[in-house]
Amino acid sequence: MKVFFFGFLLFIGFIGYGVYWAFFDMDRLPTGDYLTEEKSPDGVYTLKAYVTNGGATTSFAVRGELVFNNKGKKTKNIYWNYREETADIKWIDNNTVAINGHILNVPDDKFDFRNQ
């Protein structure tokens, strides 16, 4: 009975992770077409914005990619919003950026319309 219960929990865990990976993982977002970019005031970060076209059945979306300028780190998707075609990027200070009115503290914060 314990083996069955453990196997069932493992199966549910795999299903849960599969749903997250397929529908909510920000690392799997479409690349899109380049819109604009802005460097942070201290030059440590660059935020690049891309617009994606989902085709005839979905609207445009904007993806924001954080680039670490001085570190050998991989870029990180920090912004994903549906029904947008432009990106207004304003750095408030060295670690705070506003993207289309959404304020994020980099590098830890993310905005994803699917989780709101």
Q: If you had to describe this structure to a student in words, what would you say it looks like?
A:
- The chain is of the alpha+beta class.
- It has one helix at residues 2-23, and strands spanning 33-39, 45-53, 60-68, 76-82, 89-93, 96-99, 102-105, 111-112.
- It has a 5-stranded mixed sheet, with no helix packed on it. Strands 5-6-7 form a 3-stranded antiparallel sheet, with no helix packed on it.
- A hairpin with a 2-residue loop joins strand 5 (89-93) and strand 6.
- The protein is globular.
- The protein starts with a helix and ends with a strand.
- The model has no long low-confidence stretch (mean pLDDT 85).
Distance between the amino and carboxyl termini: 40 Å
Structural class call reads alpha+beta
Number of strands: 8
What is the percent of helical residues? 10-25%
Strand content: 35-45%
Please outline the helices and strands.
Layout: H1 2-23, E1 33-39, E2 45-53, E3 60-68, E4 76-82, E5 89-93, E6 96-99, E7 102-105, E8 111-112
